[in-house]
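Students often ask why we bother encoding 3D structure as a string. The short answer is that it lets us treat folding as translation between two languages. Here is a chain of 393 residues written in the first language.
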Amino acid sequence: MSEMLGKRREKIKELIRRLHRGEDPKKVKAQFKEVIKGVSAEEISLVEQELINEGIPPWEIQKLCEVHLQVFREYLKEETSLPPDHPIAILMEEHKIFLQKTEQLKTLAENLKISDNFDRIFPMIQELKESENHYLREENVLFPYIEKHGVTQPPQIMWMEHDQIRAIKKELYSIVEDKNFKNSEELRRKFFATVSRLFDTLTSHFFKENNILFPTALKLITPAEWEKIRKGFDEIGYTYHQETQKIKEAETEREKPLADGIIRFPTGELKIEELKAILNTIPIDITFIDKDDTVKYFNEAPARIFIRTEAVIGRKVQLCHPQKSVHVVNKILDEFKSGKRDVAEFWIDFQGRYVYIRYFPVRDEKGNYLGCIEVTQDITHIKELEGEKRLLD
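And here it is in the second language, the structure alphabet:
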């Protein structure tokens, strides 16, 4: 059976390679239909991953998806029966809501000369902004668990599409925030065109997730892992004020104390609960990546700047970043490991805050590289400080 599946996957790969070489999809469509009868979502995920491993860039696979999915579409309607509080059921329900609301927005955008339409559009644009945690839940919780089961590239392709969706939404926000929006026919036309592009992009993206990525996840991820995923979803929050019953937080192996509950340092000793409280009280986000580029720890600082969930533990740090910035991550880590660099720092405007991000190599007493620590701090208030303050208010 496994040999037969392997041969089928190889045939599918060859057909996709032909598309990659520029062959007309119509010429290979008939052969596609013969090969993919009975193909599963998991097989398609594996095919895409194998092609990337063989050298086809992820962004090229993402473009090819649009082509070969036109052929796969009629065969990929996998029915899933899940309780409504299951993470996948929540995501799929959000997909329906997003498409419905984007289609409504598209209808309103077709006739923007009617003043009532403007009044309805602005709240819908705000809802679009609030939908961001949908993508954050996938990227920071679901994708890491899929990757732990050896399927790494399909989530990265979906993340690339998330960034494309974000870029289109950013265009929409820019148009709506233009002071001439209501009176400019050109801006109204541009708004309609951009909403239409967003609707088409979401339709394609959600189809891939619903029919390829999610069924793959359901076959790979264990019931115990789904409980952890749901916990991670709860931590990030939901879209459109969904009423969701948060699951009870269970103690994990990492949270159990050591034998005597004390860690001893050359400069003193701390109880486990003291150390945990200290690290979580520091108003700085800390993440530690070990010498093998694997995320080992993050603190739970108050008002955390960038989202971290338990799902990220054990994940390669390269998979925690979009493809477009992985080369920068690798450059920093390579220079830390070689001793060429001792710090990498960045500062950005992020959601109205001024954020200072620094990376440091962690070395033992002999100078051996143990890993890298990421330190992120909101310095908005610090930049505004002037003069001196010597007394408590």
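Translate back mentally: Residues 87-236 form a domain with the Four Helix Bundle (Hemerythrin (Met), subunit A) fold (CATH 1.20.120.520). Keep this in mind for the problem set.
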